[in-house]
Design goal:
heterodimer, A: alpha/beta, Pyruvate Kinase, Chain: A, domain 1, about 15% strand, elongated, B: 2 domains, 2 helices
C-alpha cells in the first residue's frame, strides 16, 4: 500500500504531464489550421501544372525525343524511395505508418532482386530506417532549422533527386508521405515521381479548342516544366505531411490528456480511500483505548 | 474594354485573381501582351516584370520561373516567385543575381553553363528594367 505522500506526489506528476499534453494539443490545433491553409493555397498551382503538363505530355510522349523524366530510363532495376517524415515525435502513428509502408515496399523490391536506395527527408524516418537499411540510405535532409515548409526546401530536395537521376543513379523514384484526409485520418501514400505519371488529359472537356500554340516548342517547355513539376510534387507532399503531422499529434495528445484525466481520477479515489481508512483506524484506536479504561 | 479572368499562382498561394483588360508577360522568347479572346497559347517565363492592367493603375510584379497559359477560359500564369515590385527590395534582387553568378561558376558542363549564363543575363536585364521603372516612378 502506497503511503499518502507517495500518492500525492504521483497525482501531482500526472497532473503536470496532463498540462503538457493539453498544451501540445492546443499548439498542434493552431499549427494544423495554418498547415491546412498552406496545403490548400498550394493546390491551384499543382493542379494547373498537372493539367498543362498532361496536355503537353499526351502530345509528345510517343515521340523519340521525349525527355527521360517523363518516359523513365526504360528499366526498373534501381528504385529510389523518398521518405518524407516529421522532425519530431509524439504524434501517434504518423511517422511509424509512413516508415512501415516504406519498409514493406523496400523489402518486397529487394525480394525481387532490385536495388533499393533510400532518401530520407525528416529526422524521424531516418532514425527508424537507419538500423535496418543502413547501406541503402543514400542521403538525408533534415528540415529542423526551418519554420514551416517553403517552396525553396522542396526545390532543394527536387534538385538533389534530379541530379541523382541525371547521373543515372536510379530508374524509378517513389515518394512516401501521409495524405491528409481529416484530423483523425491520415493515409500513408506512395506516389511515383519518376517516370512522371499524369492523369490522361481531359480531351473531352477541352475538346477541339485545346490546340495550343507553344513558345518555345513543346519539347523545350516540357524539358523546362518537368523538373519544376518534381519540385511541386515534393512540395505538395511536404505540405500534406505537415498537415497530417499536426492532425496526428492533435489526436494523439487529445488521447493522452484524456488518459491522464482517467488516471488522476483513479488515483484521487485511492488517495481519499487511504486517507479515510487511516482516520477510521486512528478513531478506533482512541475509542478502544478509552473503553479499556 | 473587354475584360478576361486572370490568375497569377505561386506554389505557396494564389497571388492574384480577377478580371483584367490586359496582362503583359515576360515570355522566354520576348514579352507579350494578352488581351481578351487570345488564342490558346503556352509559353515559359523568363525572370522579369509582369504588368497587370485592369481597374485602377497598372500593377507590376516581379516573376521568375514558370509558365503562362492562355485559353478561352482566361489566362493563368504559374510562377515560382511572384513579388509585387513595391515589396521587392534591391538587395533581394542583388542576392538572386549573386546566386545566379555562383551557379554559372559552379556549372560543370557547357550545356548547363550556357543555360545558367542565359538565366543570369535575363535576371540582370530584369533588374535594370526594374531600376529604370523605379526612377520614372519617383
Amino acid at each position: 500500500m502506497a503511503s499518502l505522500k507517495d500518492l500525492r506526489n504521483r497525482i501531482a506528476s500526472v497532473k503536470a504531464t496532463q498540462k503538457i499534453t493539453k498544451a501540445m494539443q492546443m499548439v498542434a490545433a493552431a499549427k494544423l489550421r495554418r498547415a491546412q491553409q498552406a496545403a490548400e493555397a498550394a493546390r491551384p498551382y499543382a493542379q494547373r501544372m498537372e493539367s498543362v503538363l498532361g496536355n503537353i505530355a499526351g502530345a509528345i510522349s510517343g515521340g523519340p525525343d521525349a525527355p527521360l523524366l517523363l518516359t523513365g530510363t526504360g528499366k526498373d532495376q534501381t528504385h529510389l524511395l523518398i521518405v518524407l517524415t516529421a522532425e519530431r515525435g509524439l504524434c501517434g502513428a504518423f511517422n511509424s505508418s509512413i516508415v512501415r509502408l516504406t519498409r514493406e515496399r523496400a523489402l518486397s523490391l529487394m525480394g525481387q532482386g532490385k536495388t533499393v536506395k533510400i532518401f530520407c527527408v525528416g529526422r524521424k524516418g531516418h532514425e527508424a530506417l537507419r538500423r535496418q537499411f543502413e547501406k541503402q540510405i543514400v542521403d538525408v535532409v533534415e528540415l529542423r532549422a526551418n519554420k514551416g515548409v517553403t517552396f525553396a526546401d522542396a526545390q532543394k530536395i527536387a534538385e538533389k533527386i534530379g541530379a541523382m537521376f541525371a547521373a543515372g543513379e536510379f530508374d524509378v523514384a517513389t515518394q512516401f508521405f501521409s495524405r491528409f484526409q481529416s484530423v483523425i485520418s491520415q493515409v500513408p501514400t506512395a506516389q511515383q515521381l519518376i517516370p512522371a505519371t499524369f492523369a490522361a488529359p481531359a480531351a473531352a472537356a477541352t475538346g477541339a479548342e485545346a490546340v495550343y500554340e507553344y513558345e518555345p516548342g513543346e519539347a523545350e517547355i516540357l524539358a523546362d516544366l518537368l523538373p519544376r513539376n518534381l519540385a511541386v510534387q515534393v512540395f505538395k507532399a511536404l505540405l500534406e505531411n505537415g498537415a497530417s503531422e499536426q492532425g496526428a499529434r492533435m489526436s494523439a495528445m487529445d488521447n493522452a490528456t484524456r488518459n491522464a484525466g482517467d488516471m488522476i481520477k483513479k488515483q484521487t479515489l485511492t488517495y481519499n480511500r487511504t486517507r479515510q481508512a487511516m482516520i477510521t483506524k486512528e478513531l478506533i484506536e482512541i475509542i478502544s483505548g478509552a473503553e479499556a479504561l | 474594354m473587354a475584360t478576361f479572368p486572370f490568375e497569377l499562382v505561386s506554389p505557396e498561394r494564389l497571388v492574384y485573381s480577377g478580371a483584367v483588360t490586359e496582362v503583359i508577360v515576360p515570355g522566354a522568347e520576348g514579352e507579350f501582351g494578352i488581351l481578351a479572346g487570345h488564342a490558346p497559347f503556352v509559353s515559359t517565363l523568363k525572370p522579369g516584370v509582369l504588368t497587370i492592367k485592369g481597374d485602377g493603375g497598372p500593377k507590376k510584379l516581379f516573376v521568375r520561373g514558370g509558365f503562362a497559359e492562355a485559353n478561352p477560359q482566361g489566362l493563368t500564369v504559374l510562377a515560382e516567385t511572384a513579388i509585387p515590385l513595391a515589396e521587392l527590395r534591391a538587395e533581394n534582387l542583388a542576392k538572386m543575381i549573386r546566386d545566379a553568378q555562383e551557379d554559372v561558376e559552379d556549372a560543370r558542363d557547357e550545356v548547363t553553363r550556357a543555360s545558367r549564363q542565359q538565366f543570369l543575363e535575363q535576371l540582370t536585364s530584369a533588374a535594370a528594367a526594374i531600376e529604370a521603372d523605379a526612377r520614372t516612378a519617383h
